[in-house]
Amino acid sequence: MDTMEKLRILSDAAKYDAACTSSGVNRAGVKGQLGSAAACGICHSFASDGRCISLLKVLMTNICAYDCTYCLNRRSNDTPRATFRPQELADLTISFYRRNYIEGLFLSSAVFGSPDITCERMLETLHILRNEYHFNGYIHVKAIPGADETLLQQLGLLADRMSVNIELPSNDSLKRLAPQKSKENILLPMSRIRDGIKENAHDLIRYKSAPRFVPGGQSTQMIIGATPENDRCILQLSEGLYHKYSLKRVFYSAYIPVVQDRNLPALDTAPPLLREHRLYQADWLLRFYGFTADELLSEKTPDLDPMLDPKCSWAVRHPEEFPVEVNRAPYEKLLRVPGIGVVSAKRIIRARRQAKLDHEGLKKLGVVLKRASYFITCNGKMQCRLRTDEPAVLAGILRDRGLPQGGIQPEIPEQLSLFNPTKEDAVKCLTGQL
């Protein structure tokens, strides 16, 4: 099998790994070395200057010793198999970089033989890239649960970011669908990477020339929709991972039915793309807006609202928190108002030191008034004349979005925060202004 045929098989096998994130690493070009790294974004993301930055996303091999029910690469599945040799993959990466196809590498792998054997092959690939080709670009590598701690340490010194897939939202689901994996084996490398990052931070303070260990931090990915866990369970897990393992990002991957099995959704089941999007929005609230999982969802309402984004849904359920006077409210209170994001809240704090703000001024500061107007006052006055009880506010929001007010719109795979979004809505969603 030639290199391009292997690439076709192994890049296709890697498509279910989420890698669209900012790298978190700024590294300038060095004379005599290839490439650089920028913190702004990777893998078909757009940088602040408009550039589209791309990665070679590929598996080392799709020959797997495990037989996870949900996975196309499982041992029992009849699928074309291929394996890159470390030198071959390193040559391919450099060749693509020199042709300006890519700016970095995202390397994952099935478990070939054993975790240690797989990790050794990935480590050899990174060693060739960094030390023989002097590749200075971005590298994201998937850590293999069960691999020796020394191998993970060496990988971390060569990679910019590492990730360990949590796979499924609960240990029960993991036992049912991936019996050869365990929660403990997955969390152990996470803790080792976390500890390595902390130790390296202390070393860098003492010795500025110390090698950097995973400077872009670590992330994880979980599959949603393959198992019965509700959104509250998923967000509580994410919240715990952020706090305990200092993760940069949790990725949510909507399960695409590719396997016929009694423990999985039927093949004709649509992927839960809208649910995935709502989870990403809620995750944003956990990381940047000061919300907790138990605030967003409860035992009575364990799943996110398909009609409203999580922040708006929370606001509608908590009328006692509103209206908020934008000329006096603290920053933390402003962040809870739908339509006011992190950027616009900071602008409000700065602007109101100079003059009192009105609704027109808020619009110029980037506030999405068609959401915020139901929840704020400017100098004691509301722009909206509707009653502020839950049915009235909900009806007004749905009307503004072009949705029927008497029922739930059929689920549509949306990647923005609104149905039928305007240009303004699209910009606010992409910049995280919920």
TrEMBL record:
- Annotated Radical SAM core domain residues: 59-194
Does the keyword Kinase belong to this entry?
no
Query: What are this entry's molecular-function GO terms?
Result: catalytic activity; iron-sulfur cluster binding; metal ion binding
Q: Which UniProt keywords apply?
A: Iron, Iron-sulfur, Metal-binding, S-adenosyl-L-methionine
Q: Cross-referenced PANTHER family, in alphabetical order?
A: ENDONUCLEASE/EXONUCLEASE/PHOSPHATASE FAMILY DOMAIN-CONTAINING PROTEIN 1, TYPE II SECRETION SYSTEM PROTEIN K
Q: Which NCBIfam families match?
A: rSAM_link_UDG (TIGR03916)
Protein name, please?
DNA modification/repair radical SAM protein
- Source organism per entry reads Hominenteromicrobium mulieris
